Amino acid sequence: MKINTSEFIISAVKPEQYPTDDRVEIAFAGRSNAGKSSLINTVCNRRKLAKTSGTPGKTRLINFFLINGEFYFVDLPGYGFAKVAKTEKDKWGNMIEKYLTIREPLRKIVLLIDSRRKPTEDDIAMYNWIKYYGYEAIVVGTKCDKLKRSEYKKSEKQIKETLMLSSEDKFLFFSSLKKTGVEEFLEMLDEAFE
Ligand code: GTP
Ligand code: MG
Fold it and tell me: Where is each EngB-type G domain found (predicted)?
């Protein structure tokens, strides 16, 4: 697949605000700061389509981007950010959960994990949740520009083993900084439309 156009559509807090045109959706989930919004920008070849930040908790709403006029990328708020007040966390948790449980057009979930870190309890819960609801996952080890050559194998093993990744799910490394994994990611996306 090639991404030719990408367009911000809406930041939604509640389901009434989600798009109503029934186009397929690909959602991006992961810890705060994992690199979700950056990945969206990188694969769309846009610098500021999705807002990014070095401070965790940048994306606070559910953002819909229309891709090639055909389907949506859905940028979800990150979870697991310690410095957010509990009330705020509950609000985000509810928002994400509501989207994921009721969303008919949702076809695939991309789960982003910082490749330098062991997946957390939250990551495991998210992965199990994805499987429980019968979705296939694309698991992305992000920020791989920070790994040494010799660390790739260990990182992949750690992510796959900690999540207990099932064989039907895909894994790839990605770097928004170096643009590593863009082609591979777009190929995996093709399969979501088969
Ligand atoms: P939330 O919106 O808080 O959930 O975070 P997010 O997952 O959308 O992360 P975001 O894309 O905003 O990136 C967080 C930070 O990581 C920013 O400072 C980015 O510049 C940095 N970052 C993202 N991708 C990469 C990457 O591939 N390599 C490196 N070195 N840094 C990255
Ligand atoms: Mg974000």
Answer: 22-194
| Whether residue 178 has its Cβ less than 6 Å from ligand 1 | no
**Angle at Cα 101 formed by Cα 52 and Cα 62, nearest 5°?**
20
User: Do residues 25 and 109 touch, judged by C-beta distance below 8 A?
Assistant: no
* Cα 168 versus chain centre, distance: 18
Least trusted range by pLDDT, from 13-22, 86-95, 132-141 = 86-95
Give the ligand whose atoms come closest to the C-alpha of residue 142. 1
Structure tokens that stand for 171 in this block: 């894994």
**Number of the ligand 1 atom closest to the C-alpha atom of 76:** 4
Question: Between the CA of residue 11 and those of 95, 110, 166, what are the distances in Å?
Answer: 12, 19, 32
- Which domains, and CATH codes, for the chain? 6-193 (3.40.50.300)
Mean pLDDT of 133-141: 94
Provide the angle, in degrees to the nearest 10, between the axes of the packed helices 152-163 and 121-132: 60
